[in-house]
Amino acid sequence: MIDRPAAWVAEAAGGHLLAGDPAAPGPVRAVIDSRIAGEGDLFVGLPGERTDGGRFARGALERGAWGALVAADAAAGLVAPEASSPAVIAATDPAAALARLAREWRRALGCRAVGVTGSTGKTSTKDILAALLRPALPTHANRENLNTEIGLPLSILEAEPGTEALVLEMAMRGAGQIAELAAIAEPDVGVVVNVGPVHLELLGTVERVAAAKAELIRDLPAGAACVVPAGEALLAEHLRDDLDTIAFGPGGDVTLAAFDGRRAEIDCRGARVFLELTYAQPHNLLNTLAAVAAASALGITPEGLVEPRFSRLRGEVVELAGDVTIVNDCYNANPMSMRAALEDLAAAPVPRRLAVLGAMAELGADEERYHREVGARAAELQIDALITVGEPALAYRDGFGGEIHAAATPEEAGALLEEIARPGDRVLIKGSRSAGLERVLGEQPK
What b-and-e string marks burial along 116-138, b requiring 16 or more CB atoms within 10 Å of the CB? Predict the structure, then answer.
């Protein structure tokens, strides 16, 4: 809950309070979907390509919303003469007002903030870092995919009074977007998990991807901490002498000294950190090193059991009837994350390993090559069978050469999987969000 009065909320957003009691306690959270707006919610009516969200503000207020933040023309029609009417805040640009309100609430909390970005693994790193910090500090982290110029402000506004640490995943598709998020979150620690071939359709080269991710490094205040992969040449030119730079991974400041499948011994700048992990994937061990580095930058030495609340559709293990195990990692995919997921599948001690693969989106002119290379990697790892989903995913077969099945839709892939899966099989489901692979298991997009 935003424990500030309505007048503060309006001023912090850069808007004008046209209705409602200026001294009324603030909202519980902000929402942009009028259908879920309820008691205690501030509905923010955002302009869209086809319609202005402010048109739905009245419905949100009728459902008991605390108030509405909308454009001036929409606000005028919401003002009621009753003294007890909901708050109505008029703003020139509701999206900018939402960002400004989130930044002011972040400042009001007076807490430390960590920004986490990267081409792959940023969500898991965020989840792991939050798990490391929670035993020591009241910690708030983004839910699911609230990591964009709209989602990140909504997430910050969910943080409760008394929060001492914000862990904020930052997503981007193009130049300038990480800078926009950093301006809202004002992080004290910046984490770049890795840099790889993502969003090439817009950015063109991996070097430009690195520059876009490095906006987080550029915009940190002097004296802040920067966490980066050890030896990452693509980030070298973006590092700053006035930051405390912590490198993680082999050859870095934070390294994995030992791991027995459960207990991890980590060297963190000469100090020993002992953690009991509930996961063992190599990529998540590396993500854990990044998270330990970030925790150390906040003065926290984590210890004991680590049980992250991994976000939905990111490596979820589902047991199906017939002794078939599914690794549901279909939230997103790029060449780096696809290889990591296939390597994890190949390491499983099971009779057969199958992969249901959708396309990797936004790879630009080299799209076919990247898919072919992933298919070749699956062959090297001796994955027993592939099911490709959709026409762009057909390029996997050019590099694979083994047992392969093609499905036009996720539903068709699900039916194929039922036919070919055998007891004891382990199945990876992975593809970009646009592939909709949650439907392989009959789930609907959320």
Answer: bbbbbbbbbbbbbbbbbbbebbe
Q: What is the pTM of this model?
A: 0.87
Q: Which residue has the tokens 């078939």?
A: 324
Topology of domain 6-93 in CATH is 3.40.1390
- Each residue's pLDDT tens digit, 114-160: 999 999 899 999 999 999 999 999 999 998 779 999 999 999 999 99
Domain spanning 110-306: which superfamily? Mur-like, catalytic domain (3.40.1190.10)
DSSP line for 346-378: HTS-SS-EEEEEEPPPS-GGGHHHHHHHHHHHH
Strand pairing category for 29-31 and 112-117: unpaired
User: Do residues 188 and 224 touch, judged by C-beta distance below 8 A?
Assistant: yes
Would residue 226 be called left, alpha or beta, if left means φ above 0 and alpha means ψ between -120 and 50 degrees?
A: beta
According to the CATH classification, is domain 316-441 in 3.90.190.20? yes
Burial environment of residue 100 by CB neighbours within 10 A (0 to 12, 13 to 18, 19 or more): buried
The answer to whether 26 and 104 are in contact (CB under 8 A) is no
Reported as a single tens digit per residue, the pLDDT across 305-364 is 999 988 777 888 889 888 999 999 988 899 999 999 999 999 999 999 999 999 999 898
Q: How many residues does the chain have?
A: 446
